[in-house]
Amino acid sequence: MGDDWCAAPLNLISVGQNNLSALQQQAYMKFVDTLKRLVRNSFRSTDLIAKLVQTLSNELAAVKAKLDKLIEARDNQSTAVNERLDKLIEARDSQSTAVNERLDKLIEARDNQSTAVNERLDKLIEAFEERSRAINERLDKLIANENLQYYVQRVQVDLHRKLLRVLTENRPLHPVAKSTGPSSIYICHGGHEHDRTYAENVAEYLAERKVECVEIELSEDGLRPELEQCLDEPAIGVLGFGSQLDHSWLGSGSFLAIAARRQVPVIQWILDHPSVRWPEFSNSTPANSRFLLNSDHSKNYFDRYCMPGCITATISGVGPNKRSRIDRLSRELFLDRDIKCLIALSLNRAGRTAQDTQADLAALDSSLAEAVGEAVELARFDLIQPLEIHLAAILESRGLALPNQVFNACFRLVEESVQLFRRRKIFSIARDYPVIIQSDEAATSLLQGAVATCLENISMQLTISRMRSCRAVLSVSYLNDMIHDRTMNGWNAGCVNIVEDNLAHRRILRHGVNALLFRYDDDSLRECLDIVCHKPERAYAIAEAGLLLRDDPRVRFAGYDNILALGRRSPSSDTLMSTMPRAE
Questions:
Q1: Which residues contact 299 (CB under 8 A, 6 or more apart)?
Q2: What is the pTM of this model?
Q3: CB atoms within 10 A of CB 152
Q4: Is-same-fold flag (185-314; 328-357+404-556)?
Q5: Secondary structure class of 476 (helix, strand, coil)
Q6: Which run of H or E residues covers position 8?
Q7: Calpha distance 528→294 (Å, rounded)
Q8: So what's the architecture of 328-357+404-556 in CATH?
Q9: Alpha-carbon distance values, 261 to 106, 154, 288, 342 (Å)
């Protein structure tokens, strides 16, 4: 390239040089020389950079060629490796197929062996079942013989006892003089704690009336030769709880039928609502049984829907028990009691749960289900009338005529639903107070996190005894005209009774004077609990007034005379007395 490109500028500089001084010309010359050197150095640098770039390009091409060869070699090696791996996988697959075939054959052989073993086991089990059936048949015969022998022995013992008594008294086996009349009552029960408590109450009443009673504990099975003694000598009657006597048998047949032939009155006391317990009876007839019911409402229901034409009478519940009775009540003793209020209520009743009730309601056809539901809505706040009138009126308005058995089943669902509603209502309020709630496991979910103390499955006799340590007792009744035995025990113990504002209580109680009454459609229960939990002086005044009722004949053993009257009554007798409390 040379220095030609800068000749023009240098010429221009030469032209201007003539106009400068010597010193300025000398400086310009140095500048021009420096500029020329810079230009020459710049061209040399450019040449060197071009040569370097060329050299690097050549080296890069050589490296790229070597990399291409290396990659080609690696590709060839990878192809070889893949071919070897494919062959190896193919070999493994072949081996796996062979192994699977051998395993299939082995499993098939095991299945065959298992089938053979199962067949042998089935034959062995069948042989054992046949032997078991034969053994059971022999055991049944042996048990039957043992029962028969036991029965014969009991009869022999009773005969020996009678013979010894006759010899001791030195009188003939068949006396010539006829007895002046029966003078004793037999109380029969299955030994349950509740039954024992009821029997104690009846025995206490009979002792006051100077009537002899004999208590018989029934065996668990239906064969009950112990009942023979009820037939040996004349008796006022044989009293049983629930359907226990209905399911009692002697060696020669049904106890009820034999007692009827011997003209021994059998009295069966239905302790719950008849709709709940009547399905348990199967051998009772108007000819062989007389029935005791807990109120007029209960008796009327039984006469209409259970056994029309049967001899029946009423009694005011099972009465107070001696365990709850205190000697005296004072302000100091009352205020010293550590339990402000005792509420003993179960949600499960008569072996049934809320789920059982719901399932039975769901099983009804639509017309019956609607009628039952409507009856529940009308009955749950009704504390005066017999609750069955609501169901009967609804069925009549719909033109539905039900046989008694079906009506009983439907009304039982009404009664259970009403009681569930009422008891849950009580729990929903009482949970906020410092009280003791005794219930069952079904109430646990309703009482979680409650202020109240919750106890499960407490016995009847412990509950009765505990009342002497309580300031108040809350009770409910499944009949609007019945005073519950827990209320009677509350008076016995000197407690404030918190009870429903129902027909029976209105006749003998005054709210705030000798008891506290509540309803389910207002805040009256909350007001009652406020008094017994937070106003002890007022609570004591109510308890003191209530204590005067514990020996009131309208309360204590009211209707118990009907036990004796039922035994002495002939089928043509007049109707027995009512036990509905009368207002004074």
A1: 293, 312, 313, 314
A2: 0.69
A3: 12
A4: yes
A5: coil
A6: helix 7-17
A7: 27
A8: 3-Layer(aba) Sandwich (3.40)
A9: 77, 21, 9, 48
Percentage of the chain beyond pLDDT 70 is 84
Q: Name which CATH class applies to 185-314.
A: alpha beta
The total of other beta-carbon atoms located within 10 Å of residue 282's CB is 9
Contacts of 67 (CB under 8 A, 6+ apart): none
Assign 141 a pLDDT band (cuts: 50, 70, 90): low
- Strand, coil or helix: 58: helix
Closest CA to 534 of 429, 434, 437, 430: 434
Say if CB 380 and CB 511 are below 8 A apart.
Answer: no
Give, rounded to a whole angstrom, the gap between the first and last alpha carbons of the chain: 147
- Which residue in the block uniquely carries the two structure tokens 């039952």? 372
* Angle ∠(59,62,67) on CA atoms, nearest 5: 125
pLDDT at residue 30, as a whole number: 81
Is the Cβ–Cβ distance between 256 and 283 less than 8 Å?
yes
Domain ranges of the chain: 4-169, 185-314, 328-357+404-556
| Per-residue pLDDT tens digits for 421-447 | 999 999 999 999 999 999 999 998 899
Residues 6+ apart with CB under 8 A from 333: 494
Distance CA 74, CA 82 (A): 12
Beta bridge pairs of residue 311: 290
Quick one: which H or E segment has residue 214?
A: strand 212-217
Long-range contacts of 104-107 (CB under 8 A, 24+ apart): none
Containing H/E element for 344? strand 342-344
Rounded Cα gap, residues 344 and 350, in angstroms: 16
Helix, strand or coil for residue 212? strand
For residue range 224-256, list pLDDT tens digits in order. 999 999 998 889 999 999 999 999 999 999 999
